């Protein structure tokens, strides 16, 4: 059996090996060019296959456990997991089994297990995969499930897991004319002003992408800038700006924007996005904690666990184990303290994280209010289109969760607060 060296399936197995074996994030692997040898359509397919496998991993392992006496080496296990998920989701049995068994043959270390892979996948292609839909919804790993259950309760976490398993539609933010673009692209205008598209193929091939009329941004991720409510001519700094979704929103509103981020590679994406959309911002590659100035408004989208984005990034619960969260929480507090010092009198600071952990949201703001005399949360700022008053928290922030808008396709988890003094 001849299997071409680089294919979407082979690359999907590579991604699974890296995520599950090396704790690497898929976004980092893609950004560092690991799939660059694949044409764009195959690259997208490899990511989709790996994402589907990670979303269904718990189910695939349950089915495989019935066939295997003990788990094989990780690489072989990942081939079986990928094949099981594809077959159970209705993939073409001949194509899936043929290519994955072929991959085994190409690999000298594991070639002796080729027969096993062939037998298990053929069984899966027969009737073994039928109970797929009846298996329980995949659960988050314990290290993340436990703190979420203690923060939100078991039922809401079940609903979040349902949202993670369903995945996410594509949301876009437009420079102007949202209704017209929604109609042109066949999307739905959401109550917050974002446009939601289902079943999108290649994003860059859609009308309005090359011309820079819109950018990809989850509806929840667009809310911090709505809450900041930038005005034309205001001097605003976007701290932790890359890849730049919020910078673009601020610039589109006519603000005089400075975008700051530590990562040179990610700042290059901000520059690319500005160029494509024809918007302007001063770009600074540097540490937020060393940034000086005095601003009408600040946006601090701090680095965080990103646990609010699992429906888009199902690799996260497997690549991470929470061991770096303590450091992130300490950094967020230092960033808030520094940002407060950059505010002009009467200015406002929007703090946000795409996290589901109260330690990175509600608790950060509660503690900042204690540390800074006169600092308060502006609850009125949270009254933006589409934001449900029921989402407002005790200390005056807005809590967004993936299980909200369940009938409309969900939203990323976020925490947002507008601080003033
Ligand atoms: C949540 S992401 C920002 C997303 C961005 N605001 C957007 O909407 O596209 C967090 C960013 O913080 C940056 N970062 C982490 N530590 C930093 C620091 N000390 N100074 C500046 N940027 C930092 C990371 O490079 C990353 O791009």
UniProtKB/TrEMBL annotation:
It holds the Pfam family Methyltr_RsmB-F. The keyword Methyltransferase applies. Residues 149-421 form the SAM-dependent MTase RsmB/NOP-type domain. InterPro entries: MeTrfase_RsmB-F_NOP2_cat (IPR049560), MeTrfase_RsmB-F_NOP2_dom (IPR001678), NusB-like_sf (IPR035926), NusB_RsmB_TIM44 (IPR006027), RCMT (IPR023267), SAM-dependent_MTases_sf (IPR029063). Transmembrane segments: none annotated. S-adenosyl-L-methionine binds at residues 240-246, 261, 301. Keywords: Methyltransferase, RNA-binding, S-adenosyl-L-methionine, Transferase. The active site is at residue 354. The keyword Iron-sulfur does not apply. It is an enzyme of class 2 (transferase). Gene3D superfamilies: NusB-like (1.10.940.10), Vaccinia Virus protein VP39 (3.40.50.150). Its EC number is 2.1.1.176. PANTHER family: NOL1_NOP2_SUN FAMILY PROTEIN _ ANTITERMINATION NUSB DOMAIN-CONTAINING PROTEIN, NOP2 YEAST -RELATED NOL1/NOP2/FMU SUN DOMAIN-CONTAINING. Belongs to the class I-like SAM-binding methyltransferase superfamily. RsmB/NOP family. This is Ribosomal RNA small subunit methyltransferase B. It comes from Roseovarius aestuarii.
